[in-house]
Give the backbone structure.
Amino acid sequence: MQKTREEIPEEFKWDLSKLFVSDEAWQKDFDSLKSCVDRINELQGKLDHSAENLAEVIKRRDELSRVKDRVRTYASCNSDQDTGNAKYLAMVDKIDTESAKLLAAVSWIEPEVFAMGEEKTAQFCKAPVMAPYLRYIEVLLRDKPHTLSKSEEALIAGAEDALSTASNVYKVLANADLKFPVVKNDKGEDQEITQSNYVTLLMSKNRDLRREVFTSYFKVHEGMRNTLAMCLSGNVKMQVYKAHIRHFKSALCASLHNDNVGQEVYDSLIEAVHESLPAFFEYVTLRRKCLGLEYLDMYDNYVPIVPNFHLEVPYSQGREWVLEALRPLGDEYCAVVKRAFTERWIDVYENKGKQSGAYSGGCYDSPPFILSNYTGTLDSVFTLAHEMGHSMHTHLSKSHQTHLYSEYRIFVAEVASTVNEALLFHYLVNKTTDEKFIAYLLNQKCDDFKSTVFRQTMFAEFEKLIHERAERGEALTADAVSDEYFALNAKYYGPEFKPDRAIRFEWARIPHFYFNFYVYKYATSMCAAEKIAADITSGVAGARDKYLHFLSSGCTKDPLDLLADVGVDLRTPAPIMQALALFPDYVKRLSSILLKQQQQ
């Protein structure tokens, strides 16, 4: 059974006192938000008076954002460590409600800047006081065609909290209210299925257990399918509506706008993966043969296909592997990683009510905290490396940039995390001479391609399809969404699968469908990361320094430009195709070792 929060030793919990020593201290910062807004609004109607006023409003708004980030981080981290804790859930709701009011209160800024006209704005930008804000103005002016009047912007900002209801309901429903049955695990012990251990249980060699876990898990989702579909539909409709009123061609185009990425990048990813599906089907065939099955079901997707190899990695060992794997990034980088482990930046283990999955969070004034649900699998070690990549990206960005430019774009966020995974793979596969372990790692690498490139691209295509449905005015009912997902699943996994129809409801367990076209970035990032990691480990001149500069750059350039500086130009399909070309080789190496083992 799951442990309670109180049963987890303190050394394995993140130390949120680094942000606020008490809830009372949090309240003081929360109360200061109003005065921050008042100081901003003193300048309303005066931005066109001088460059000094324009610079000052940007500065004051940045200060407001910084305080808001501190307050939101503390509340959300406390809530995520126990989603059933009503006190912190109320604090999250309180800051989210207040944030909507704050956005409404300062929503006049962009329209007033745009009303100044290009000539006056350009004139002001020549003043020395504006030097720190030129990049900010450059990016801001891109929003001009999609920015409404002051009153309209205020209405939209004031509605943000209400517009987030669908995703907020889904989060509470999925992490706190859905209750899953108890099964007998491989040790014969009663174990409750949870969001965090679901995939771990599907790694069991016992197919009957896998089938039981799979069917009982999705039976719960099926029972709530209409409510879950309503949550998804509400979120999609919200994105479609916001895109429409801001004069974007589609919700997808609106989501790509902030990263300054064209839709051709999104579409070319899907097209490239479609072309590479035959190579993926070869891996699927290898999996079926290794498992000795006539056909595969979706609950056969996670069990390792390396025979007679059991790997359980204690957290202390996983921590050591991650640190050693990151040595190619230099002593300074690794010194900060050590701090993350010793100074309680990480909330390590699962507990009752804890947010499932893993993430790197924090803010400019806190350590880049990591929420983990470490279970002792090799996957847990790779997840630890992954989130450490995010946290180091955050640490280096805020160490080298002001708050205004420290928050890197989501498009590049997954590159740093996936480079760390690639470095961990390289370290482990070269560290061992045990062919069973090498085969296990190759299996893991193939599964990474499956989950990060092929599967995330399937998710990306699903997102695109359901948003297009909504844009055509079609209802996103439970049946419509489930049928769309089932057909897409069949397309991506191929003829070797004869899946239980319960997989129709898998969309209901994917929280990323509430993150507004986020998942395709996992796929593009892995493709970019494969090249960056290969350059670093093979000693390409300047590769490490270029990469560390990339990590330190925050949002001082557009994402595609930052990646181009590291030698990855995603404006062309080449990096995607180059990465996908590696996959057949991994499958071939894995197949060769497994065949040799079978002959021994």
